């Protein structure tokens, strides 16, 4: 399989001298197209920093990140924002839903911000797959945690990105709902031919992925 995402010599340092923190300390990683990869590590291991770098939300101190044929460091801030909206779907642990918008409005928000017309048929297919068909007019606060996470997944999928980056997507969910959410991610990934990178601290959740990458102290120890 070909690599859709490549990180080479990735470093992210904060502070100086004795206060220097090496959040990432020389990471090389290739993510194959269409696979579900879990990045596992303890708190402070660098996994969230790595995910932010892979998604272009933060820039490395040193090293390069390539998505497809695009080198992220070559993009201006505005270009990077547009690139992310079109190519990457983000699923956050805290859902990041807009409380005053309905489920439907939350799902299509990134597409609307990009000035594009939503593919309604495609999005309805996702919504039905995720069991949200009867919740489209609801506000996020009227949903359970599992339902809010499903809305976040639908929003990430709706713009047809080639890559899904999930930051502890089951962190706020019980064991059963966590399993359901990962199962849905795997199913939608296969259905829509998407590459998924998920970070987690939970080994049981990680084992549901196609591949597990372990990071500790800013360095990849197994992959």
Describe the overall structure.
- The chain is an alpha/beta fold and 223 residues long.
- The chain has helices spanning 47-54, 77-87, 103-113, 120-129, 145-158, 175-191, 203-206, and strands at 3-14, 21-32, 36-40, 62-67, 70-71, 88-91, 163-167, 195-200, 211-216, 219-222.
- The protein is 34% helix and 28% strand.
- The longest helix is centred in the last third of the chain and has 17 residues, at 175-191.
- Could you tell me the CATH topology label: Rossmann fold
Distance between the termini: 16 Å
The proportion of residues forming helix, as a percent range, comes to: 25-40%
CATH superfamily, called what?
P-loop containing nucleotide triphosphate hydrolases
Number of helices: 7
Q: Element order, helices and strands?
A: EEEHEEHEHHHEHEHEE
Biggest sheet strand order reads 6-7-8-3-9-10
Mean pLDDT over all positions: 90
Any idea what the radius of gyration is?
A: 17 Å
Uncertain residue segments: none
Question: What's the CATH architecture name?
Answer: 3-Layer(aba) Sandwich
SSE-based structural type: alpha/beta
Shape: globular
Features:
6-stranded mixed sheet; 10 strands; 223 residues; 4-stranded antiparallel sheet; Rossmann fold; alpha/beta
Entry summary:
This protein has about 220 residues and is α/β, with parallel strands linked by helices. It is built from seven helices and ten strands.
Q: What's the structural blueprint in terms of helices and strands?
A:
Blueprint (H helix, E strand, L loop, with lengths): L2 E12 L6 E12 L3 E5 L6 H8 L7 E6 L2 E2 L5 H11 E4 L11 H11 L6 H10 L15 H14 L4 E5 L7 H17 L3 E6 L2 H4 L4 E6 L2 E4 L1
Parallel strand pairs: 3-8, 3-9, 6-7, 7-8
Antiparallel strand pairs: 1-2, 1-4, 4-5, 9-10
């Amino acid at each position: 399989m070909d690599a859709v995402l490549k990180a080479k010599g990735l470093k992210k340092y904060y502070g100086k001298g004795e206060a220097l923190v090496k959040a990432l300390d020389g990471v090389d990683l290739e993510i194959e197209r269409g696979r579900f990869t879990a990045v596992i590590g303890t708190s402070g291991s660098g996994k969230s920093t790595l995910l932010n770098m892979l998604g272009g939300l933060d820039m490395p101190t040193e090293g390069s990140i390539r998505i497809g044929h695009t080198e992220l460091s070559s993009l201006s801030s505005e270009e990077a924002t547009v690139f992310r909206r079109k190519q990457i779907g983000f699923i956050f642990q805290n859902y990041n839903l807009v409380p005053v918008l309905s489920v439907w409005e939350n799902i299509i928000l990134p597409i609307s911000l990009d000035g594009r017309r939503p593919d309604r048929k495609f999005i309805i297919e996702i919504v039905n797959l995720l069991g949200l068909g009867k919740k489209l007019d609801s506000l996020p606060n009227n949903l359970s945690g599992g339902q809010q996470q499903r809305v976040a997944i639908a929003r990430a999928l709706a713009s047809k990105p080639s890559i899904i980056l999930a930051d502890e997507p089951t962190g706020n969910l019980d064991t059963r709902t966590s399993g359901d959410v990962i199962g849905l991610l795997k199913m939608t990934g296969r259905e829509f031919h998407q590459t998924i990178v998920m970070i987690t601290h939970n080994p049981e959740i990680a084992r549901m992925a196609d591949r597990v990458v372990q990071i500790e102290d800013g360095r990849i120890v197994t992959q």
